[in-house]
Amino acid sequence: MAMFLVMLHRSGPQWDPSRPLEDQSGWPEHAAFMDGLVDAGLIVLGGPLADEHRVVHIMEAESEQAVRATLARDPWSETHLRVDSIEPWTIRLDGRRPSAGS
Predict the structure, then answer these.
(1) Contacts for 44 with CB less than 8 Å, ≥ 6 apart
(2) Which of 5, 27, 32, 97 is the least buried, fewest Cβ under 10 Å from its Cβ?
(3) Which domains does the chain have, with CATH numbers?
(4) In 1-26, which positions are buried (b, 16+ CB within 10 angstroms) versus exposed (e)?
C-alpha cells in the first residue's frame, strides 16, 4: 500500500554554491530524472528550501526502501544531493479541494 513520505536532501560535495541551480554540472540529466518521477506519480511536491542547500520532496511510494532505490539512480545521487532523511507522513488535514467535475 502506498504511503506519503517526506524526504529531506542536503547539498552534496559537488554542489557549487556560487552557481545557480540550472548551472550546476549534470543539471539536464538530473532535471529529466526528477521530471520522470513526477510524471510517474512518485513525487507529489518538491523543491529547494530558502537556504538553497536543502531540498524537500513529498513522495508517494510503497516504502522508504523503494524511495532510496529509485533515488540511487538519480545522476545527482551522492554528488550534488545526499538524502538526509526519509520519514513516513500521516496526513490528518488536507485542504485541497477536488476540482470541478470530480
Answers:
(1) 4, 58, 59, 60
(2) 97
(3) 3-89 (3.30.70.1060)
(4) eeeebebebebeeebeeeeeeeebee
Nearest by Cα to 70 from 20, 36, 29: 36
Q: Could you give the strand order of the β-sheet that contains 81-89, starting from the edge strand earlier in sequence? A: 43-48, 54-61, 3-11, 81-89
pTM, 2 dp: 0.85
User: Taking the mean position of all CA atoms in its chain, how far away is CA 8?
Assistant: 8
DSSP run (H or E) holding 83: strand 81-89
The three grid cell numbers given for residue 46, joined into one nine-digit string? 518538491
Considering just the CA atoms, what is the radius of gyration of the chain in Å?
Answer: 15
| Of 52, 9, 14, 63, the residue nearest 34 (C-alpha) | 9
